Amino acid sequence: MDQIRSLQRRLLAQRAQKLLDHPQGMGNYFTFKTAIDILGLDWNAVAPGGIYGVTGPGYFDMGYMANNIGPSKAAIEAFKEASTWDLLRVYPPDCMRDLKTYVANKKFSRELGPDFDVMGVEGAQGGIGYTYLSFLNPGDEVIVTDPGYFHFVPAAEICGAVVVPITLNADNGYRLRPDEVKQKINSRTKMIVVCDPINPFGTVQTRDELLEIAELARNNGLVILNNVTHNTHQTNPNAVQIPMASLHSRETPMDHVISVSGTSKGYGMPALRVGFMAGHPALLRGAFLTKMEITKIHINYPGQFAALAAMHDKEYVQTSTDIIRRNLAHLKETVSKTPGVVMPVEPDYGFCTMIDVSKTGVTAQEVTVGLLNHKVAVIPGDGLGEVGASDYIRLNYSWPRLDCFEAFREGLPKAIAESQEGRYAAAVKAFFEKAGTARGRRIVDLITHRKPNKMLPSCDPTTSPKKASMLRSCKTETPKGKGK
Fold first, then answer.
1. Calpha distance 51→55 (Å, rounded)
2. CA 440 and chain centroid, separation
């Protein structure tokens, strides 16, 4: 291990080295993939083929934010029809004109013109990366939410930027509040990240909030990254999501706003890696040139045809929205029936939400292992930020059938009970000790120093003789696994 670390320190660039010990660097935060090893499961039985999701028979995926409903039939047919000798043998345009025009209108509520354009990127993630690379210099400060999307923080930091977090909580409605944003702005601030709908809570900003944040940025010479990739499904029928680009006018110019979106969340096509980055052409020019030098300007050509067909398929969007609303209702009922578990805020758009398990007396990471033991894959909060790192579990509720949510309803209390027995504590601690991050060490300390009397009665002998007898099973067991 010392030789490996020495090799890394000698040869890797500083920006890559930053990720080795970053709490949000892939492999350093806890996921259901960690749980596969802890439980000693066969990877091919859970996530066959090395995919980033759970597709094994009998398992249910509520983890990564892929739309489990999958693509529309129209998108699949368009992809097949475009997979021809003529189209596959050429370098494609960065974004077909028809697709570019439709995306501008459909995703960003804007018309193409001399002050607004769209370029193709490798998913919304590509748009985030090229925005950071094109606008951030070492020492620049970036305002983000905590918790937030996994990659907002480390991607900024490898550019040399300094992340300035704003805690999402009940006081600000789990949204960016303009007065809190204003307090964070100083002479070093360069960018404000407005993820709307907000991953991981699914909340949306109001029109007035967006206008005020845009004005703050405009008056201070700042760039806004507006990620709207979760805005396809209106989970709350009364909610309204507004792309910042759509607020452009002579009185409220949005030339300083870079917008990104993709096709993974709204249209169930993460494998295509088709996404969009939009803004003033003068600013996109910098991102365009940057992209050319790193990955070339081209994106999946048949995927562009599939994306266009998907966005035109209004029936698919309505049907998938109905499924997502049904699933959320089931999920809310499960949470209400499970002692010690709450949903901090109900989502407005998309299909991700958070539950808080802190009142159960165990960590979200232990519950994550327990849930996979009962065939349900989820993601705990430590990869999403410092806030709620050991308390939150992010849930993807886009599974097309209710069997997933029935399994979650049955498995959640069992996973909590197993965690209260201490069944997964040692393995969770071992993972974070190996990762070696400061955030991980805090979770290790939390598990090490917690008191049994803070757990729910299932492991508390003072409540009744029956509960006392249960204590005999509340021993720490270390599951056998591969320790990846």
1. 9
2. 19
DSSP string, 326-337: HHHHHHHHHHHH
Q: How far is CA 187 from the centre of its chain?
A: 30
Q: Which residue has the tokens 């965690």?
A: 419
> If we measure between CA atoms, which residue out of 279, 246, 283, 232 comes closest to residue 260?
279
In this structure, which amino acid lies at residue 405? F
Supply the angle between the helices 301-312 and 73-82 in degrees, to the nearest 10: 150
Which residue's entry shows tokens 């809190």? 180
In the chain, where are the structural domains located?
Answer: 2-61+317-473, 75-312
Give, in words, the CATH class of 2-61+317-473: alpha beta
List the beta bridge partners of residue 226.
194, 259
- Provide DSSP, 118-167: EEEESHHHHHHHHHHHHH--TT-EEEEEES--TTHHHHHHTTT-EEEEEE
Q: What is the pLDDT of residues 135-190, one digit of tens each?
A: 999 999 999 999 999 999 999 999 999 999 999 999 999 999 999 999 999 999 99
Nearest to 103 by CA among 299, 307, 271: 307
Cis peptide before 281 (omega within 30 of 0): no
pLDDT digits (tens, 9 = 90+) for 9-22: 999 999 999 899 89
Options 3.40.640.10, 3.40.50.10440, 3.40.190.10, 3.30.70.890; CATH for 75-312 is 3.40.640.10
Q: How far apart are alpha carbons 369 and 355 in whole angstroms?
A: 16
pLDDT attached to residue 179: 98
Q: Do domains 2-61+317-473 and 75-312 have the same CATH topology?
A: no
Question: Tell me, what amino acid is at 312?
Answer: H
Per the DSSP assignment, residues forming a β-bridge with 257 are 224
